[in-house]
Amino acid sequence: MSAVSPSATLTTSAIVFPQGLYVHLPFCAALCTYCDFASEVYAAARAQRYLKALENEMRVRVGELATQSGRRFAPRTIFLGGGTPSALNIRELTLFFDLLRRHVDLDAIEEFTIEANPGSTDAAKLEFLLKQGVNRISFGVQSFQPHLLKLLGRVHGADQGREAISLARKAGFTNISFDLMHGLPTQSLDDLRRDLNEAVQLGTDHISAYGLIYEDGTPLKGAVERGMVEKLPPEEEREHYLLVMETLDAAGLPQYEISNYAKPGREAQHNLIYWHNEAYLGVGVSAASFAQYVRATNHHEMDAYMKAAESSGQPAANSETLEPEARARESLILELRLRAGVNAAEFLERWGLDIERDCPALPKYLREGLIEKAGNGRYRISRLGMPVADGILSEFV
Question: Per the structure, how many domains does the chain have?
Answer without folding.
Answer: 2
